[in-house]
Amino acid sequence: MESMEKKIREIAREIFINQKIDFFLGYEEGSVPLKSRPFFIQAKEKTPDGLINRLVWNSFCSNNLAVFLPKFFEHDPRKKPPRIGISVKGCDLRSIVALIKEKQVPRENIVLIGVPCLGMIDKTKVEANFQGLEIIGSEETPEGVLNITTKDGKKHHLKREEFLQEACIECRFPMTEGTDYLIEGKARDPGDGGYARIKAFEDKPPEERWEYFKREISKCIRCNACRQACPTCWCKECFAEQTDLRWIGASIDLSDTMIFHLIRIFHQAGRCVECDACYRACPMGVDLRMFTKKIVQDVDELFSYVPGFSTEDTPPMSTFREEDSDNFISEP
Amino acid sequence: MAQGVIKKEDLYRLLSTAAGKKKVYAPIDGVGGIEFAEIHEQKEITLDYSNSKLSPKSIFFPQREVLCTFADDALEEVQTPKEALIVFGIRPCDALSLTYLDKVFSDSAGRFKDPYYLKRRENAVIISLACKEPRATCFCTSVGGSPSGKEGADILVYELADKLLFESCSDRGQDFMKTASVLFKQAEEDHKTAAKEQAEKAKDGMPVLNLNGLKERVDKVFEDPLWDEITRNCLGCGACTYLCPTCHCFDITDEENRKGEGYRIRTWDSCQYPLFTLHASGHNPRVNKKQRMRQRIMHKYSYTVDNYGDIFCVGCGRCILYCPVNLDIRDMLNTLNKL
Amino acid sequence: MENPYIPYPVSIDAITIENDAKDLKTFKLTFDREEDLKAFTYMPGQFAEMSVFGKGESPFGIASSPTEEGYLLFTVKRTGTVTKELHNSEPGRKIGVRGPLGNTFPWDRMVGKNIVIVSGGFAFTTLRSAITYMLCKEQRSKFGSITTVYGARDPGELMYKDILKSWEANTNIDLTLTVDRAPDNGWHGRVGLVPNVLKEVNPSSENSIALVCGPPIMIRFTIPVLLELGFNKDDIIISLENRMKCGIGKCGRCNVGSKYVCIDGPVFTYAELEHLPAEY
């Protein structure tokens, strides 16, 4: 990944020099272990070499950077929309395609640097491995080993592959296609999409599923981190906050919280790219992955549609075809 | 000052004995991580934690609180809390935060007292647990706290191997210890020495953030373009504010059923949400995330200094640990203070 | 302990439509309990939270004057949930009022001074209160001249038409009405934006205090005019609005810098505002 990091910096420098972009959006080292964080570089008069050298690429670049784009392109007659260079994984790219399709991001203002994705580390999995013992340092080797330092001063060596996020293990599209630049390298082998996990859950009795749903949602504190981290949650006014016709209450009453998540996730039907940004963002560890994946699977199976690849096709929720499934009427 | 030692395994016996009719809250390992909850037996309590994920403010200032109930157009009932509480195990930073919330909800000018918060506070005994090993994200000593700080606590407890050393720091704490005096063993000299050493070690290990002159600095640089840069990563969620022990902003809304019966509730709200300040006219004094994050920082490090004489940050580090984009308040403060 | 979140029960006694667009209505409220009427002592400039159970609460400037005894007046623009419900109400309905809240116009300082009042649109409410108060027999002699410029988009949007008519005929007050757009007929007042008309009226700043209430844009353009006329920054009094919930300095949303509009305001001097961020 070091060579990828080098390449990203080179391309960033090149497009700054050629004045192709006003901003570059990548990652820098985070301030806590196991975390890289979004990093904006703004073009000033000179090539921002010092900042470019802070760009990193490693197993902690989880954040889906597409989430930052729509704000830059909100209509403002006083400002010229910026040109933005952005390094993207497979899931980030699919989010951007969805945003271009939904007219939130103009393709011509974006310079895409595709990075073949080897999967990202699941911070919670690593933390769980140490059962509450604080992790104070983390680094990875090119051989796929995670070196972890814990509070007691001990060093631990973990196999990277064993601590990847579910989204990455299940990911069917780790390779980016159609980007302006493509970093050389091999992505991980595509996963199976994780539908089997949903099937297994669906086979459980309703009470058990309900209990699971209740347990997960009961952790929610309505901080909206899931919504704000989701690239395709760009509504200017969220249904959850409409007051003149109130759909749900503002509190953490379980029924309100459940409706919030259900509607938010349903609104992602045909748009969710399974990046799990919502799950990672949640400070309370609400596991939304079962529900988001279910929506993805339904759209796939009912409408043979997988979002995030074409900016031309009509999204299944915006159209009606005669052959569309209507079993929600006949077999509700 | 009263001192006493108990064995860890006798903690619940002690708390319940002294409790009388009070409810006992203690840290448990809940579904969403370490949290404070009402407990009924020893085995529910965990002492194996650096700090709770949600701050204990929700015990006194719950995320959802019914202010009154109504039917049709008439007020039916005004609800105020009746329960008395013993809260065990909150960390010194969070105990300190309660003294800040007290200032907001009691109003020093005496004009408007908040009965919901104050009723719970008035009847509560706060037993805080000194930190043995502060987290790497903790910075309490840089904002006037300490891993063994006593402010806001009625009793401070040190965890010593298999024992707990109790030290009262208020009259209420002393009364509590008197009520359960038969359960305490006398604190020996080596207990006290161990506690002192532990406190020193914890304090010395803390990273230091130089916040000297920060208030004057942020007041001066309110319009600086740097705010755009340091807030660019912000997603605009409310995680930092909801987890923060001193954030206390709230909303008041009504909920009713089709028969016109319902309640007026107060719920946590966040300065990070655009709706927080949106006027009915559509005008919004804080339209973008720069302005909203600046408000959060100014509120904590400048406005509360003007209004209450304190920085409303206790250095617990929750906002650092749980921010989805690792927007680190220490970095922001450092950058601002160097301007 | 007294609970500052609980409103007084009041009844809507009468409703008056104030403008042609019919989105401004004045509500006359009477207290259901005699002791609440006594407890609700206020001065012009203050506001209160009007409460419709099931819909919520919203803050409004008190439009009546304490000299109008036995009732309260609030003028409400139909914009959101609470105001819509109020507009759909009939006289007789029970609602709630919580207050009085906030500070008042600086009445101690205003005694003996000439008063210049500048207002635009719907923000005229607390100034109706102030003028009514100053014009009452016991009070009038305490103040010098009262010069008022009040503007609206068009004549149909000027509020309190009957009272305006009586003030136009009253020699105790010099009232100038203006509208942004010239109507086809029947308009005898001025045409022009409030700051411009204020310049034409040219009130003396000598021993004067100016009260300014209006939309942010009007305030922004009025202040330079007043400064040009020679008003001290301390003598320009501005009433602010910000979104509010609790009204008692706790819920944290109406702040402008370290000041809360609900308890430190809504009335500020320009000298104070100059040092605060423009977050209103």
Primary descriptors:
B: 339 residues; 4-stranded antiparallel β-sheet; 12 helices; 11 strands; 21% strand; C: 280 residues; alpha/beta; Elongation Factor Tu (Ef-tu), domain 3; Rossmann fold; 2 domains; 7-stranded mixed β-sheet; 6-stranded antiparallel β-sheet; globular
Write the layout of secondary structure elements.
The complex is a heterotrimer of chains A (332), B (339) and C (280).
Chain A: H1 2-17, E1 23-29, E2 36-42, H2 49-52, H3 69-72, E3 84-88, H4 90-101, E4 110-114, H5 123-129, E5 135-140, E6 145-150, E7 155-159, H6 166-170, E8 181-182, H7 195-202, H8 206-218, H9 225-229, H10 254-266, H11 277-281, H12 289-303, H13 327-330
Parallel strand pairs in A: 1-3, 3-4, 4-8
Antiparallel strand pairs in A: 1-2, 5-6, 6-7
Helix pairs in contact in A: 7-12, 8-10
Chain B: E1 3-7, H1 11-19, E2 23-30, E3 33-38, H2 57-60, E4 64-71, E5 74-78, E6 85-90, H3 92-106, H4 115-122, E7 124-129, E8 155-160, E9 163-168, H5 171-179, H6 189-204, H7 214-220, H8 226-230, H9 239-243, E10 250-256, E11 261-268, H10 289-308, H11 318-322, H12 329-338
Parallel strand pairs in B: 2-6, 6-7, 7-8
Antiparallel strand pairs in B: 1-9, 2-3, 4-5, 4-11, 8-9, 10-11
Helix pairs in contact in B: 7-10
Chain C: E1 8-17, E2 24-31, H1 34-39, E3 47-52, E4 56-61, E5 72-77, H2 81-87, E6 94-101, H3 107-110, E7 114-120, H4 125-135, H5 137-140, E8 146-152, H6 161-168, E9 174-179, E10 190-191, H7 194-201, E11 208-213, H8 216-228, E12 236-239, E13 255-256, E14 259-260, E15 267-269, H9 270-274
Parallel strand pairs in C: 7-8, 7-11, 8-9, 9-10, 11-12
Antiparallel strand pairs in C: 1-2, 1-6, 2-5, 3-4, 3-6, 12-15, 13-14
Helix pairs in contact in C: 7-8
